[in-house]
Amino acid sequence: MRICGLEEQIHVIDNQVTVEEIIKDVVKTKEILDPFYVFDVGELVNKVIKWQQTLPRIKPFYSVKCNDNSLVLEILAVLGINFNCTSKGEIKQILDLGVNSSRIFSTPAKIALHIKYAKSTCINLTKFDSKRELFKIKSLYPSCK
């Protein structure tokens, strides 16, 4: 896994400190201009591993629009999680992590440009929510599943 440019955003904290204490300290000691969040990377990894052990035949697709934080996406990619992308930008973001296009799922209500981009990157798994959307996909990307 490569973590580029994230070093200033990642802080390793002693296990004895609570999330509430971390947040209070950050707010008190730093000038916060942007939203921030605190999460336990170990907890993310443990939950993915538990999912994989408990439900080995069910392969989840993480919705990138839910949280597109680079660190979160890189961890999920390394752990073999698949991705649900809703735009060309999200597809590119996941491909830039080195994720194989077979692990990317594209969602409905796509504009023609995004369908063509999915085709150019060999992402051939999608869903549709109307007959009109199905015909649009079929006309632009006939071999898409």
Automatic annotation (TrEMBL):
Name of the protein in its database record: Ornithine decarboxylase
Gene name of the record: spe1
Required cofactor names: pyridoxal 5'-phosphate
Gene Ontology MF, one: ornithine decarboxylase activity
Pfam families, alphabetized: Orn_Arg_deC_N
Signal peptide: none
Keywords, in A-Z order: Lyase, Pyridoxal phosphate
InterPro entries xrefs: De-COase2_N, Orn/DAP/Arg_de-COase, Orn_de-COase, PLP-binding_barrel
Family to which the UniProt record says this protein belongs: Belongs to the Orn/Lys/Arg decarboxylase class-II family.
Domain Orn/DAP/Arg decarboxylase 2 N-terminal: 42-143
One GO CC term, this protein: cytoplasm
Gene Ontology biological process terms, A to Z: putrescine biosynthetic process from arginine, via ornithine
Record-linked PANTHER family: ARGININE/DIAMINOPIMELATE/ORNITHINE DECARBOXYLASE, ORNITHINE DECARBOXYLASE 1-RELATED
